[in-house]
From TrEMBL, chain A:
InterPro entries for the chain: AAA+_ATPase, ABC_AA/LPS_Transport, ABC_transporter-like_ATP-bd, P-loop_NTPase
Domain ABC transporter, residue spans: 6-247
Protein's name in the database: ABC transporter ATP-binding protein
Origin species: Caldovatus sediminis
UniProt cross-references to Pfam families, sorted A to Z: ABC_tran
Entry keyword set: ATP-binding, Nucleotide-binding, Transport
Entry annotated with the keyword Nucleotidyltransferase: no
A molecular-function term among this protein's GO annotations: ATP hydrolysis activity
TrEMBL record, chain B:
Entry-linked CDD domains: TM_PBP1_LivH_like
Gene Ontology biological process terms, A to Z: amino acid transport
GO molecular function terms noted in the UniProt entry: transmembrane transporter activity
Organism, as annotated: Caldovatus sediminis
Protein name per Swiss-Prot or TrEMBL: Branched-chain amino acid ABC transporter permease
UniProtKB/TrEMBL annotation, chain C:
CDD domains membership: PBP1_As_SBP-like (cd06330)
Species whose genome carries this gene: Caldovatus sediminis
Coiled coil ranges: none
Entry-linked Gene3D superfamilies: 3.40.50.2300
Domain Leucine-binding protein span(s) in chain numbering: 40-381
Family recorded in the similarity comment: Belongs to the leucine-binding protein family.
Name assigned to this protein: ABC transporter substrate-binding protein
Keywords attached to this entry: Amino-acid transport, Signal, Transport
Keyword Signal: yes
BP term (GO), one: amino acid transport
Lineage of source species: Bacteria, Pseudomonadati, Pseudomonadota, Alphaproteobacteria, Acetobacterales
Amino acid sequence: MSEALLQARGLHLAFGGVKAADGIDLDVLRGEFLAIIGPNGAGKTTFLNMATGYLRPQAGTIAYEGESILGLAPRAIVRRGIGRSFQLPQLFTEHTVLENVALAVAAREGVWSPLRPLLRPAWREEATEVLARFGLATLAGARADALNEGARKLTDIAMAVALKPRLLLMDEPTSGVAAAEKMAIVETLARVLRETGVTAVFVEHDMDVVERFADRVAVWSQGRIAALGPPGTVLADPAVQREVIGIEGPGAAAAGLPGGIAAGHA
Amino acid sequence: MAGWLEQNALLLGLALLDGLAYAALVFMVAVGLNMVFGVLRIINIAHGSLFAIGGYAAASLGLFLAARGLPDWTGYVALVLAAALVGGILGPVIERGVLRRIYGHEQVLQLLVTFALFMILEDAQKLIWGVQPVSNDAPLRLLGTVDVPFGEDVIPFTAYQLFVLPGVALATLVGLAWFLRRTLTGRVIVAVTTDREAATAMGIDARRVFLLTFTFGAGLAALGGALASPTTTLVPGLGAATIVLSFAVVATAGLGQIEGAAISALLIGIGRSAAVYLAPEFEVVVPYLIMVAVLLVRPQGLFGVVETRRV
Amino acid sequence: MSTQTQLSRRGALAVAAGAVSGSLLWPGSGSAQAQKPAELKVGITTFLSGPASVFGVPARHTAEMLFEEINRAGGIGGVPVRALFVDEAPGTDHLVGEFRRLVQNEGVHVMFASISSGSCLACTPLSDELRKTTILWDCGTQRIFEEGRHPYAFRTQGYATPEVLAPLLYLLKTRPDFRTLAVINQDYAWGRDSWEIWKTAMDALKPGVRVVAELFPRLGAPDYSTEVTRLLAARPDVIYSTHWGGDLVTLVRQAAERRLFDRSTFVLPVAEASLQILGRTMPAGHIIGTRGDHWNNHPRPRDPARLSRFVESYRRRQNEYPIYPCHHMYQAISAMQAAYEKAIAAKGGGWPNDQELAAAFRGLEFATPTSTITLREDGQGLEDQIVGVSSFTDRFPFAVPKDMIIFPAAMVSTPVGQKSVDWLKTLKPDLLAQVPAPIAG
């Protein structure tokens, strides 16, 4: 059994009457791909925010590699080795795709160099390599604000990967990406991450993706983890299907539930 | 129209020359203000005081060196040195001591705080240099005049205003553009300007970028003041006048854009000079008329990017 | 026994009544100011901040210096004087509030107002309302006494009309053949009014002068390069400017550097206050004024010892020569002393109330180091104007006038009851024949 890279115990957080986290206990195991699914408003992004220092839980603990990261600023958590990509890609629109990734390399290596260029040989090489792995090599010279949704998403993830995190948290990595490209992107992503030994946690709404690529699935519901286990087991659970699969995915028709958020809880 | 142009071409040519010198100084102040806003997202009203104090310091340092019997060319060194000192000392002091505490606060609070800072600096300036006019025009006089042909007449222009001011402004523009385009720190500054959150999310220390940018901006303002000091007389109230004009330039340019600041400064500088010839009553208003005209057509300024609000 | 008691009580009452009624007969004893006050409070409004503080602060230093001297000598009528200063810079609303406060709460005996014409125009109605003697010690607007009666306001110096007319007459007398003129004045009341006065008088005395440029740059403009270029291109014979303070210093420097002074004759009616700062940068040979007659090298001051004592005391304290606001403050204080003397004498040694003090000012003649100033029945002071041409001597490290003409106040001031602009239109070129000859050297 792998040891826990990230350990959350008893996390509680309420926003004005709404319990975004209602006693979260979770171990993220080293080397695994953990999918997080659940209806909107269940607290999935909240959990990611707490793990990366953007939100502070009102009760509970989070430890990374055995050390508590509670109260650390996002920057410090990045330095510890936890990377993140966002639902809406946060790219630097004035920079090219290559520069965006190179900036991540620079952030990792140290940015204080007033006279030497960003795209120095070593970093240019590394950034190019990362882009190649994600199939973005042809877009290296394009400005970040000129990309389509899928390419922006990938670039965002590429930047997160370039930081060489040991744990990568991704918020809906395939949202906004055309269905035809989705699987290919996730394949690439999974391959890159496995090759580099990165543990991944990803929030996902597409059950096909979850089924194919997740080692384990955690089901979020109203601030609590309702189910946790391999996708085959969890996704077959009728309660889970009722609550979650109503949003998206092939199971909706089979379960006879109407698609849409109404199936979940507010 | 053609006849009018013919008649006035010479005058407009003169206006162009005057406008360039004026635009150069305006650019130096506005570009620093613009950079600071772009990165820190704070409208620094005290920026004008940095211009004024840079000017006073340059004049004092120049007079001091001259009194010690040093050769005249050291006056130019004094200009640059004074600007560096003012920027290098006041920049970090203000950023660390004051601005640090108001990042992320409401804009109204930030405006009030920088306004208070402006008043404090004005008073400090009066305490140190008094209320009587201060000036040191040695650097200007040293370079003499250039006789520009004007029909059958000649018009003397000072070499300083004709060459040094536009020259330094151009060098600053080019240098700054190179720095922001080609160096790592420059690229990081642009990244933080574009999306501070994303930069922080990558582990970039935004606060150090703030310190660096603000100090740099303060230095540019002080350099503007230092360069202006040989051409003018330093009196209380100079800071206030400068900041109002720089706002107009920055608003016209588009926040955070340095080329925009240059084009704006040129537009406003030449516009103002032309007004002195063609419609002197409007000379004071011209910068603001230009600003309003540009903003009506492009609310984000000439080169500004429309910022999408991140929900 | 009872009769005696009654008598004595009635008698006591009668004596008391007599005493009270007797005291009622004493002049002025019914008003609150019958007693000699513990100190004579003077409210002084002046510019302590902003660009005009170049005038206001030296004036304040002068007031402090002179009040100290007066108190050392026993005060005014045996009462020590104290100044309460108010800054004009925050604006007229603030000033009006302070004026009221000083009069009603602090109980000042006299007000001195102001440098800015705007301030004076706001304060004079207050002096009417509150019946408080107000000495207009420096402001120049001609409108004050021309547009209304102000029984409690007195201007102890000249004003815009003589200050502009005298230099014009000087120009017409010494350089009568000029054909073109340009004006460059600050864009506010003083700049505009001083141009209107000049133009009206010039058109009456020398019709047909062509105005080639009318430039009104912003007050406090740091740079006149474009204006100088335009004036170089236009080549007027004469350039008229009522610039002051830092603006004048900048203008002169920039114009001198680009040899504009070689092409045109400058007329600078209020140059004196900036000449020390300009030093040798001020070119020689141009017409300068001092808003009065108090030049450091006055050719025949009424009291040379007093003049040099004042100048030397000021120099010792401030390390610079006094400028015209200092002299104007001195004039206001001298007038106040003279008026109190006159009022106390009229009262047989008693302390004057507000009405009596104001009455003493009317028609007052008081001495200044350089001459005498008379206050007319409308409150306006008659101060001679000396205009000359800038020159350098060994005595001073800055420019002083030579070939000075002393213009008697009456020649260059608008007669009582007339408006300046109207009167100026009636001037005839034969006025020039009355202008005294320049005093050589």
